[in-house]
Design a protein that fits this description.
The protein is an all-alpha fold. 54% of the residues lie in helices and 0% in strands. The longest helix has 23 residues. The relative contact order is 0.18.
């Protein structure tokens, strides 16, 4: 099977999205709450795409917001490390470029993704190692999630934390890949391997102009 991450053929950076996002003016209250007044054009576009599911958007978006915001039971720093671990597997440059300031304030190393290959020797806590190891396994080959990995997770997390971690990883990985599949972030994302100029924000902004 070919390794799609090694493909270098440039695709047009102005490929149209196959589904046009719902206009911001048509956002429901749940959609407005999920984006907030300072949302980026990309975030608005993604919310607009989800809005095309109809009433399902009003159920999904509050769930997604509660799960992916740092106020969940995992906390700011651990949630951010897990997010970055997901991003290293998808290769999304936009995701990898961002660092949550609150996680940095809590002591997260801004270069943490560079240390994931040295997980057992780098300066991570036991909880961080367990969460990152699970995330990398789930995102690259879920068959690697074995009894030993569950034992490691259960030694440092309670059941609520474990299932929050599991849902977070599955949901963020899915929406990250969806963003690429619908060509919203194809300019940034290296899954399946295209490195194009940064036109994502411009593309999203055109949607709402």
């Amino acid at each position: 099977m070919p390794d799609f991450r090694e493909r270098t053929t440039a695709m047009p950076s102005d490929r149209p999205m196959p589904v046009t996002p719902m206009p911001v003016t048509d956002f429901t209250p749940a959609m407005q709450a999920a984006t907030g007044p300072t949302a980026s054009p990309t975030s608005l576009a993604m919310t607009g795409l989800i809005g095309k599911t109809g009433s399902l958007a009003d159920t999904f978006l509050p769930f997604y917001t509660a799960l992916t915001k740092e106020e969940n039971v995992l906390g700011f720093k651990l949630t951010e490390l897990v997010r970055l671990a997901v991003a290293t597997t998808t290769g999304c440059e936009a995701c990898l470029a961002f660092r949550n300031p609150k996680a940095i304030e809590q002591g997260m190393n801004a270069d943490a993704p560079d240390l994931f290959d040295e997980l057992d020797t780098a300066d991570f806590t036991q909880r961080e190692r367990a969460a990152i190891r699970y995330t990398l396994a789930f995102c690259t080959n879920h068959h690697l999630v074995d009894d030993a990995m569950w034992d490691e997770l259960k030694s440092v997390f309670d059941d609520q934390e474990i299932m929050t971690l599991c849902l977070y990883v599955a949901t963020f990985l899915g929406t990250s890949r969806l963003s690429h599949a619908v060509r919203l972030i194809d300019a940034h994302c290296t899954l399946p391997g295209y490195r194009l100029s940064a036109v994502t924000e411009a593309k999203a902004a055109q949607t709402f102009s």
